[in-house]
Design a protein that fits this description.
66% helix, globular, mainly alpha
């Protein structure tokens, strides 16, 4: 089986920049009361918000509620959005605060998520078009093994295609720190993927009979 490929840091960079400009323009138009622009803004970023909160929150079943909360907060704050950063960075910052508020306000006892809990989150967060992932290990399960800060940096830059500078702004850390976190996350994921590729050890007949 071919080892699943990890997304490269330069993938989709130019198309993503163009898309961000359009989304920011829709946000500014939505601020002015254009209902069509509101619809385009929400549709364009809904999947990114779902993926992001799925990787941040401790409860996969809360993903939809957190995404809804994010958009409700954003639409209520659009009048303050001035386009100084991309609308996507601005919205994901709101999503980050929504998750943080949820974690602070809800007492969550750690528990091992069973398969039925993880299936919706895997489906929502699974990247499309990456060779090998259809018959490989779910990326979400691999990412769950990373430290929170490295996982967030990887999701923002490698899965959502956010420029490192914007990811640094969102994470409130230097660009170099984001690059370091992504590099370490990639190294860990590659090691896990390589480990998954190893065939299971089979005991020899002599050992089995001993």
């Amino acid at each position: 089986m071919i080892t699943p490929a990890l997304p490269l840091s330069h993938e989709r960079r130019e198309p993503q920049a163009s898309a961000d400009e359009s989304i920011t323009a829709w946000a500014l138009a939505a601020r002015g009361g254009d209902p069509a622009a509101v619809d385009r803004f929400v549709r364009a970023l809904h999947r990114d918000v779902i993926r992001y909160v799925a990787h941040l929150c401790a409860d996969p079943q809360a993903v939809d509620d957190l995404a809804q909360d994010t958009f409700l907060r954003a639409l209520g704050s659009l009048h303050r959005f001035e386009g100084r950063s991309s609308a996507r960075t601005w919205l994901l910052a709101i999503a980050r605060r929504a998750v943080a508020d949820s974690l602070r306000n809800t007492a969550v006892r750690p528990r091992a998520a069973d398969l039925s809990d993880w299936e919706p989150a895997v489906e929502l967060a699974q990247p499309r078009g990456l060779p090998g992932f259809d018959d490989g290990v779910a990326l979400l399960e691999l990412l769950a093994s990373l430290p929170d800060e490295r996982r967030e940096a990887f999701v923002l830059t490698q899965l959502l295609g956010m420029p490192y500078a914007e990811a640094a702004e969102l994470s409130d850390c230097p660009v170099g720190t984001v690059r370091s976190r992504v590099a370490r996350a990639r190294a860990t994921l590659m090691a896990l993927l390589a480990e998954a590729e190893q065939p299971p050890l089979v005991a020899s007949p002599a050992l089995a009979a001993a």
